[in-house]
Amino acid sequence: MDTEADSLHSYPEKVCLMQFSMPGEDALVDPLSGMDLAPLWQALEGRTLLLHGADYDLRMLYRDYQFIPHAVFDTMLAARVAGMREFGLSALVESLLGTKLDKGPQKANWSRRPLTDRMIVYARNDTRYLHSLATLLADRLRALDRLDWHRQMCAQLVHDCTRATEGDPDGLWRIRGSSRLEPKALGILREVWMWRDREARAANQPPFFILNHDHLLALAEQAARGESVDALIPKRFSLRRRRALFEALDRGARLRKASRPLPLRPRGHRLTHAQRLRLERLEARRNRHAATLNLDPSLIASRSDLVALASGCERQERALLPWQKRLLIEPDDRPLSPGASTA
Questions:
Q1: Structural domain boundaries of the chain?
Q2: Domain 2-161: homologous superfamily in CATH
Q3: Vertex 114, ends 113 and 118: CA angle to 5°?
Q4: What's the CATH class of domain 169-259?
Q5: At a CB cut-off of 8 Å and minimum separation 6, what does 170 contact?
Q6: Which end of the chain is less crowded, N or C, counting CB atoms within 10 A of the terminal residue's CB?
Q7: DSSP strand E in the chain: where?
Q8: pTM to 2 decimals?
Q9: C-alpha distance across the termini of the chain, in Å
Q10: How much of the chain, in percent, has pLDDT values that exceed 90?
């Protein structure tokens, strides 16, 4: 299975096409046609779905249709767990099956109808080779005794991508780079971000088509200093859009100090000497196993995972998959007691 969305052309994005390959048939399902999809979800119950890079697809399918698959076999994850460094779909199909795929329509507008012949071929190719890839990759994982590692990761992927999460309105507008801003600039950024979101929804365009993140940060910084922002306003903006933007800038600048958002505290804590030593041991152990197993070290644990473990975060240790825990955690290297200082 695979899906195509219109994230580069619409806002908010939506699932525009679903592809399924079965023995002897590559089928396309058009969710924009208004058909009742309930029989489709019923037909998929209890099945293991083969996907490549399933994260985005699963999140979209859960958000739009509350669909939760019984299980998935992610061919991208399988390739990574098998130690392969080139794990894109095209690279795998070419290296393992000897077929070169056309990636031209990858960024096409999938909400357009009718689909072009080239788009149809591209869409079908995204699922046509998944069964063959999954078979070959499962054999590799079995030979490496890592098939269960992959199963654990896929189960965690389904869990993470198909659960309701409470929105964090305060976190939405805190874009990359905003941590350096002072409260006044943060208040302006929040107002400008909300203005951009409204404009994007009204125009049915991705927000970066209106203004990109760097533009928002520059506007907030200069407006907070009382400097002119005229040079930062794109000439393509209509008079109405310019006026709405300046109103947002003014609202942010006029916020009272008590109403301004505060910079977020760094999430991490300074490690004690004992915790730094534990981090070094964990990192060395991870890297040693990764080199021996020919794995990307981040598959075993990311840097932030290691820091949390070194800090004595029991929740982080519980979040490790069984195979990761066996490689990382040794009996004489348990987390520090809850009462240990992290200041």
A1: 2-161, 169-259, 273-328
A2: Ribonuclease H-like superfamily/Ribonuclease H (3.30.420.10)
A3: 115
A4: mainly alpha
A5: 261
A6: C
A7: 2-5, 15-22, 25-29, 48-51, 71-74
A8: 0.84
A9: 48
A10: 82
